[in-house]
């Protein structure tokens, strides 16, 4: 059945691309230098997935090994994304995008919401110059997430060892101190166990909660576009990003909190984003490819993984003159190091050296162009 649907899209594409030279403007990805035509409304909606069935290049199955040991490795994800753009004039367009992701993370679920708003203004357009189009984006991005609570003792040990080596948490919630290691790597623990109880004497299991997670980013991006042949546009871009990040850590019961614990992990950071984007029109479909490189400038104690590489590709098939279907995926070689900055802190930074990816499927609808 899926193959029959794909063939149907291809047959539609034969006639529609022949009639409509504007299909080059049906881009799904965000880093193209062209602006939308005046009065053009472009709306798209995507379903985002990674699971045992939808596994981009087998990344999920290879990177989730030892998930409990590596508590901040991402697991299955489902979500959605919506974007709308409007051509204000022949040189000016505005875009708004909302994304929601529900990701297995640290034995819990990370529920991340993201909004993007940017104004793209075309500074220069000349078909006879090397760069046919030069544009600038003025943008704002906000990530925010619900609190995450961890109660799995293996994950808590992985976390608490980075704060105070003398602590160890047992499988039933008991807390050991003054852990020592033997010559052959065996672990010896003090026989005295610390049990935490409430006022009624009930035993309390410890919990770690990450709270108030948000990141507000402001960016300036320059895009340089060049047509390669009649059906392909290649864009290069560079952006400077400033981000304010908020993250708090809370350990319950409070008796468990080591004196060395830093609970307020708020900070500011900057990033340089470089990349290129390609969109190419074929007889049956439009193909897009994007490469991203990020270099982050962070606090001196955040130096383990401060760069990120991402690639993304999409194929778009027309259903009618206004409606198109697209399918593609994204691979992040350092998880969401650059995408969700509040997850990266001095206690989790060593976990951002794994790949992650997801697939996207969706529809584009264009209004006011025919």
Description:
This protein has helices spanning 2-19, 59-63, 153-160, and strands at 41-50, 74-87, 92-105, 108-125, 133-145, 148-150, 167-169, 175-177, 180-181, 187-188, 193-194, 207-228, 232-252, 267-281, 286-297, 307-318, 323-336, 356-367. By secondary structure, the protein is mainly beta. It folds into two domains: 2-143 and 215-367, Porin; 152-205, no CATH class. A hairpin with a 4-residue loop joins strand 14 (267-281) and strand 15 (286-297). The protein is globular and about 75 Å long. The relative contact order is 0.18.
What structural category do the secondary elements indicate? mainly beta
Counting DSSP E segments of at least 2 residues, the number of strands comes to 18
How would a textbook summarize the main sheet?
Answer: 12 strands, antiparallel, barrel
Output mean pLDDT. 76
Tell me the β content.
Answer: over 45%
The CATH class label of the largest domain is Mainly Beta
Ends apart, CA distance between termini: 32 Å
Rg for CA atoms: 24 Å
